[in-house]
Inverse folding.
C-alpha cells in the first residue's frame, strides 16, 4: 500500500531536520524495513514536508515501531523539530492524506 503524509518542520529547525535525516539510526531504518516498508521518501517545500511510503500495512508498521526505544527517541527528536500535523501513533494510523487522483 502507498501512504502519503504531510508534516511541517519549524522554520527555525529546517537545517537541524535535514541534518537529522542524513543520520537516521541504522537500527531504526532496519526496524522500518522489517515492519514492511519498502520505500519512504520525504520532499520539502519551504517548511512543508510530504512523505510517500510503500508498505505492506501502515497500521502494522506503527504498531511494530511504537514501543521500540530507537523509534521513541527518534520521535522525541522529531517532536522538537516539527510543528505536528500528523499523529504517528497507532490512533493516527489511518490519517494519511486521501488520494485524489492517480495516473
Amino acid at each position: 500500500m502507498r501512504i502519503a503524509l504531510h508534516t511541517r518542520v519549524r522554520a527555525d529547525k529546517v537545517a537541524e531536520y535535514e541534518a537529522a535525516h542524513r543520520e537516521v539510526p541504522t537500527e531504526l531504518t532496519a526496524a522500518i524495513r522489517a515492519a514492511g516498508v519498502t520505500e519512504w521518501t520525504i520532499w520539502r517545500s519551504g517548511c512543508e514536508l510530504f512523505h510517500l511510503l510503500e508498505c505492506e500495512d501502515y497500521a502494522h508498521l506503527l504498531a511494530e515501531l511504537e514501543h521500540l526505544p530507537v523509534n521513541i527517541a527518534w520521535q522525541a527528536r522529531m517532536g522538537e523539530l516539527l510543528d505536528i500535523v500528523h499523529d504517528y501513533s497507532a490512533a493516527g494510523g489511518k490519517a494519511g492524506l486521501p488520494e485524489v487522483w492517480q495516473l
In short: Residues 2-88 form a domain with the Alpha-Beta Plaits fold (CATH 3.30.70.1090). Strands lie at 2-9, 37-45, 48-55, 82-83.
